[in-house]
């Protein structure tokens, strides 16, 4: 059962428990309760705990801990905690830490401090994690004076802050732009008995980049290496994103080109970041060059790389080349890639290719989304294929009504004086049990008024439409 539980096969755990040829033991009950909690079945977990109570078997701290996992409501956790104390199952530090973390997640800092004080006064001895959860909440709220007092409390109680604690503090200070304090903490690290890691510096550099201090971020990379710390993939991503944020695209491209000589372990994420930003500024030539360079270096482009390239080619008007990329069936494209190409054909007015790409999309198992349908409606209406456009809306009703699609089609139909098709659309929607909302009805009335149908001479032309709309209002 434990093996199945760790593998996430919770139905198997339940099946084995029910087929036990002997009375279940406390460890087996505990495994079942934990598995049910992990599978998102809190009521079943509590029912299993109730069965354990009825069995008369002695309760254990592990069984209570498994029950705690079934719900994160503070009042429920408090009741379980009190029940543990009443039954003589003393909670250990791990349980206290879990409760403190949960209370901090709910921003209930005072309640978390109450549990921490209980540990300090009565045991068990708190761990660094006991303090760090509260420290993180203080930092998220910008309460750095309380955070400093908490650090002193840790030292006074023989539980000095470690690198995780200081990294949490640095992350909070960076969020509020207090970089001078960060420098002070890093400078005093050796004296206070802790050593910054690559994660610590990554947090600092990320904060500097967000605030626009890119030069200082790169200086910290040198400081990190001088301390014998290696640049991680995350370090490279942070610094590379920093260059792109500052629009220093030429420097970013040089770093990619000479990454091996510089010792930068660049990956597809770096290329995608730069390609996307270059696409935003219409630098299509460099987008394609980066895609080719990536292939030459043996860095496998992913679906996003090709999607960015397709977008770039469409914006440059090179639709045939963009289509040749998406025709590569060795790449599993998603709806965004197909929508990008469809939008390119829509913009160019090549409506045949729009519909062809749509059919190709479906044949490859990619289902259209709302944006796809909106583009198809527009392209069909431009060709005056209003019946086909109406069919798209009616077919999509199985996935729920999208008011914007109905408003879009009504706009085309009213302007083209296709009032019969408006009437048919409303009638078919009514037959399918769809109730139109006020937004659709109100917009349709405005469209009819703008087109002059509310004048006395033309009013009779929309009487049937108004009758159906009145029926919706009554319902």
What features would you highlight for this structure?
29 helices; Serine Threonine Protein Phosphatase 5, Tetratricopeptide repeat; mainly alpha
What does this structure look like?
The chain is an all-alpha fold and 475 residues long. Among the domains are: 91 residues, Tetratricopeptide repeat domain (Serine Threonine Protein Phosphatase 5, Tetratricopeptide repeat, Alpha Horseshoe), CATH 1.25.40; 122 residues, Tetratricopeptide repeat domain (Serine Threonine Protein Phosphatase 5, Tetratricopeptide repeat); 80 residues. 71% of the residues lie in helices and 0% in strands. It contains 29 helices and no strands. The longest helix is centred in the first third of the chain and has 14 residues. It is extended and about 90 Å long. The two termini are 55 Å apart. The model has no long low-confidence stretch (mean pLDDT 88).
What's the short story on this structure?
This protein is 71% helix and 0% strand. By secondary structure, it is mainly alpha-helical. Among the domains are: 1-91, Serine Threonine Protein Phosphatase 5, Tetratricopeptide repeat (Alpha Horseshoe); 247-368, Serine Threonine Protein Phosphatase 5, Tetratricopeptide repeat, CATH 1.25.40; 396-475.
- Overall form: extended
CATH topology of the domain at 247-368: Serine Threonine Protein Phosphatase 5, Tetratricopeptide repeat
Largest sheet: none
Report the radius of gyration as a whole number of Å: 31 Å
The second-level CATH architecture of the domain at 247-368 is Alpha Horseshoe
């Amino acid at each position: 059962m434990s093996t199945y539980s760790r593998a996430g096969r919770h139905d198997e755990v339940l099946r084995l428990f029910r087929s036990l040829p002997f009375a279940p033991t406390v460890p087996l009950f505990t495994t079942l309760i934990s598995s049910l909690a992990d599978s998102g079945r809190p009521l079943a977990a509590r029912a299993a705990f109730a069965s354990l109570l009825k069995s008369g078997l002695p309760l254990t701290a592990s069984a209570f801990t498994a029950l705690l996992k079934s719900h994160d409501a503070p009042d429920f956790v408090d009741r379980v905690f009190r029940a543990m104390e009443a039954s003589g199952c003393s909670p250990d530090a791990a349980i206290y830490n879990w409760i403190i973390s949960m209370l901090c997640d709910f921003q209930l800092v005072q309640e978390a401090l109450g549990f921490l004080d209980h540990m300090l006064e009565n045991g068990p001895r708190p761990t660094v994690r006991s303090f760090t959860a509260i420290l993180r909440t203080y930092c998220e709220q910008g309460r750095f004076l309380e955070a400093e007092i908490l650090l002193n409390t840790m030292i006074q109680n023989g539980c000095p802050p470690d690198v995780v604690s200081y990294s949490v503090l640095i992350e909070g200070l960076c969020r509020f732009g207090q970089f001078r304090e960060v420098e002070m903490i890093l400078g005093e690290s050796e004296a206070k008995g802790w050593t910054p890691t690559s994660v610590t510096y990554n947090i600092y550099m990320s904060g500097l980049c967000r605030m626009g201090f890119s030069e200082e971020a790169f200086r910290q990379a040198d400081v990190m290496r001088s301390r014998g710390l290696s640049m991680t993939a995350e370090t490279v991503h942070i610094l590379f994103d920093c260059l792109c944020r500052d629009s220093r695209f030429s420097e970013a491209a040089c770093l990619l080109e000479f990454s091996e000589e510089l010792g930068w372990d660049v990956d597809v994420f770096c290329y995608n970041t730069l390609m996307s930003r270059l696409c935003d500024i219409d630098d299509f030539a460099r987008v394609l060059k980066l895609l080719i360079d990536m292939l030459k270096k043996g860095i496998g482009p992913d679906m996003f790389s090709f999607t960015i390239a397709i977008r770039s080619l469409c914006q440059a008007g090179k639709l045939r080349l963009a289509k040749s990329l998406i025709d590569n069936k060795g790449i599993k494209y998603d709806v965004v890639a197909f929508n990008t190409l469809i939008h390119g054909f829509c913009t160019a007015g090549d409506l045949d290719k729009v519909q062809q790409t749509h059919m190709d999309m479906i044949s490859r198992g990619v289902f259209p989304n709302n944006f796809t349908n909106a583009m198809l409606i527009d392209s069909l209406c431009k060709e005056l294929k209003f019946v086909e456009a109406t069919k798209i809306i009616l077919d999509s009703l199985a996935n729920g009504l999208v008011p914007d699609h109905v408003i879009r089609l009504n706009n085309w139909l009213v302007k083209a004086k296709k009032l019969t098709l408006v009437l048919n659309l409303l009638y078919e929607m009514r037959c399918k049990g769809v109730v139109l909302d006020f937004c659709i009805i109100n917009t349709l009335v405005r469209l009819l008024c703008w087109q002059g149908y509310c004048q006395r001479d033309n009013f009779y032309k929309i009487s049937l439409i108004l009758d159906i709309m009145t029926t919706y209002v009554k319902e």
